[in-house]
Amino acid sequence: METEARHELIADECLLIGHAGEIPEIAYYGSLYYLGEDPEGPGLLLTPAELAALQAQVITRYREIMLRDLNPANRGLPVYRGIRRVIWNWERLGKFLRRHGLPPHPELEQEMMAALQAFLANELQEVRSGASRSCLNCTVAELTEFLMFFQLSQDPEAQDWLALCCR
Questions:
Q1: Which of 12, 94, 126, 130 has the greatest number of CB atoms lying within 10 Å of its CB?
Q2: Of the candidates 99, 112, 65, 60, which has an alpha carbon nearest to the alpha carbon of residue 85?
Q3: Are residues 46 and 103 in the same domain?
Q4: b vs e for 93-103, b when ≥16 Cβ sit within 10 Å of the residue's Cβ?
Q5: CA distance linking residue 87 with residue 136, whole number of Å
Q6: Which tens digit of pLDDT belongs to each residue from 132-149?
């Protein structure tokens, strides 16, 4: 297969993964099947660079989903899934990285930590002011573990954040 056509196939599959639903790794495995094993597919043996491009799309999509759910402006929208989903998606992403021997992404961890802290501070402020009721749909144990991972469990408002959790 010529290089340009191969590049376009990989780019198309990256696009599909990037616009996949809530679990982008399912689209990733679908792309691997189509590109390499599907009798109607191109039958490619993917290069490490091609695999890396597809895997990067999974990471990018998980990032988008998690940041969407950490954006207070999305709280009332049908697309909003809540903190519990952020926690699950963070865990899914971690498993994906480990399964494929990919390194952690410190810059993504820092971005997530900042977004989580800002979301929780906003949530607490809105609840305290009476502007809204808490939307934290995770348990105290789930949020405690998540805060510990991001080294936010010692934040001065951590106990107040935990008090907003569903029981």
A1: 126
A2: 65
A3: no
A4: beebbeeeeee
A5: 12
A6: 999 899 999 999 999 999
